[in-house]
């Protein structure tokens, strides 16, 4: 009898795991515009999510790609806010595909920023893991 | 035997519940631009979703935050369409974080509009509940 | 005993099916702006997703609606890239609601493009099926 139940228990365990995974909150915020107003809006979004849900209860990532990569360059108009967001535990992430295509080196990117091969693929991965997605 | 099955049945029930929850359709439409063309597009989206799926088979919410809040102010260029959408059962929702930051009172917002603390957190909540998300 | 287990097994099977369904990657990319820079960004996104995950491991769809429909008209500035994307297995999809509202005939749309009644409803359907959603 125990043997016969194994697949059921396995499927149930998978389901339970997937349901438990969604207890904590997570959101990935996309920045794909070269527009400081959008950058500030995305940073406000990150801050408000942490304030509303409690910094320890939610994972927040900002993913910049395409024309949005400019938000993360050393000369960015929001460099100080990026530093604060990182210090507050927001994952700030740059797309290396965009960097390659636009000849931007890691040394031209603000400190504290992390890198992924492809911003869009990272966003897909997060959605698959059950993260929310917001595109300001 | 019955006792031993309880966790399995519980997990299965949770899964079934989560699957059944997705039988009905739901979508949250985000408005975060101060751009009447975008507002009209979002309102068209809401109308088309109701027309295509049947008004009684789908829940539609419009969430306005950041620069998009202007869509819901008394002097909005789409005030009449907001009234029609509400009358057709679309949930029209304003972000109170944005209102606080831009010193907008509830009295300056169109009648019928509902309020949430943080528009982005509401969008995350809906996604977690299995709603679709569209950002026109 | 077998009978009593049936609902459990059924729920478990449904769950397993839904979990297996998410093993392959899928993404629907929305185009709702009349802006060739956005069209190129969306096409770059589709190409990067295929390059990063492997063309055979991921389904990619581009859905154009509202002002974004212009991307798929014969005179589109990205007509050649649309042809390449189709040839590479990207599903390129036009919204017939938008076509009706803007009096665009199928004959005015690029070859290889597919049609759905309502672009937004198609996006909702894909999200419900577990596809990722990206709005460049």
SSE inventory with pairings:
The structure is a homotrimer of 136-residue chains.
Chain A: H1 2-21, E1 25-31, H2 36-53, E2 58-64, H3 79-87, E3 91-95, H4 96-101, E4 114-116, H5 119-128, E5 132-134
Parallel strand pairs in A: 1-2, 1-5, 2-3, 3-4
Head-to-tail CA distance between termini of chain A? 53 Å
Strands in their spatial order, largest beta sheet of chain A: 4-3-2-1-5
Cα gyration radius of chain A (Å): 18 Å
Largest interface chains and counts: A-B, 27 and 25 residues
Question: Beta-sheet strand percentage of chain A?
Answer: 15-25%
Outline type of chain A: globular
Q: Give me the strand/helix succession of chain A.
A: HEHEHEHEHE
Mean pLDDT figure of chain A: 90
Q: Helical element count of chain A?
A: 5
Helix content of chain A: 40-55%
Q: Which structural category fits the helices and strands of chain A?
A: alpha/beta
Give start-end ranges of low-pLDDT stretches of chain A. none
Described by strand count, sense and barrel closure, the largest sheet of chain A is: 5 strands, parallel
Oligomer: homotrimer
Total DSSP E strands of chain A? 5
């Amino acid at each position: 009898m125990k043997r016969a139940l194994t697949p059921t228990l396995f499927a149930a365990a998978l389901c339970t795991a997937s349901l438990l995974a969604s207890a904590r909150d997570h959101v990935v915020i996309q920045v794909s515009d070269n527009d400081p107003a959008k950058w500030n809006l995305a940073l406000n979004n990150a801050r408000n999510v942490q304030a509303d849900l409690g910094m320890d209860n939610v994972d927040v990532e900002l993913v910049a790609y395409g024309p949005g990569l400019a938000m993360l360059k050393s000369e960015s108009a929001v460099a100080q806010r990026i530093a604060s967001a990182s210090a507050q535990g927001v994952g700030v992430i740059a797309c290396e595909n965009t960097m390659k295509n636009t000849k931007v080196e890691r040394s031209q990117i603000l400190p504290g920023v992390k890198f992924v091969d492809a911003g869009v693929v990272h966003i897909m991965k997060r959605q698959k893991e059950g993260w929310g997605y917001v595109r300001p």
